[in-house]
Amino acid sequence: MKRFNDFEKMKAFKGAQEAGKNRYKDVGCLDNNRVKLANWPHDYIHANYVAVPTNPKRFICTQAPLEKTCADFWYMCLQEKVETIFMLCNLTEKGAKKCCEYFPTKDKDKLEFEEKGNKVTVKFESSGKVKFEKNTDAKVTETVFTVEGPGGLTQKTTHYHWIDWPDRGVPTADMALVELLAKARVTKGPIVVHCSAGIGRTGSVVMIEYIMDQFLSGQPIEDSDKILVKIREQRNNSIQTDQQYLFVHQVMMNYFMDKKLLEDKLKLAHVAFTEQYLKCVH
């Protein structure tokens, strides 16, 4: 499935280009379901709502914050009552800057961001490594922040930073992501997900949750190409590589195996798929 940008459907994105609010020129942001900031100096942020079958605003997929968009990002989290953030990239990767330092770490217990006189403060509360139930080599840090903004807005937010998910690549297809999504699923507000561009690694997470949502609500699971089209209609060019697309399938098959839901014939197919999968991703 080719990736393409139809800039006729991304007018706000084009308008924000000069203001320096977009990380990449070739990663567009669709107008039809973009997150709009209210009571703020401007309404634009490179972010889209993405639905799963039982929740029209389950996710907000967004680019990694830039220096010029940190205040926008945290204000969006306040406005949308975001309780969970997934960060799937690092600040620098392969020597290139992929994300601005938009959250405080222990040594600086709070950070302030400002957009035209509107201040947002992010306070560090606590941090630790996520302890997974199932065996995994995934390294994920869980940090709790209190976010305060204009008009007395305040929000407690849990930030999951996946440290070792390679850019344009995939982590081990174990149960780590399924466990993280289960933790986040109980929250009411949208789950914010970002990598650097907010489409590749981000799209993989969203597609897994889309399938999980159908499975857990007892709906038949749609064909995966149809699911991807639906996600891309909301967050343009979601899932960037063949590996990421295969990763989604491998995680789901491993999950169904783990839950003992595959009949013998399918178990054999799963073994064959896994062999080919590992050749593709290594």
TrEMBL record:
Gene3D superfamilies: Protein tyrosine phosphatase superfamily. Pfam families: Y_phosphatase. Transmembrane segments: none annotated. Residues 175-246 form the Tyrosine specific protein phosphatases domain. GO terms for molecular function: protein tyrosine phosphatase activity. Signal peptide: none annotated. Residues 21-255 form the Tyrosine-protein phosphatase domain. This is Tyrosine-protein phosphatase domain-containing protein. It comes from Caenorhabditis brenneri.
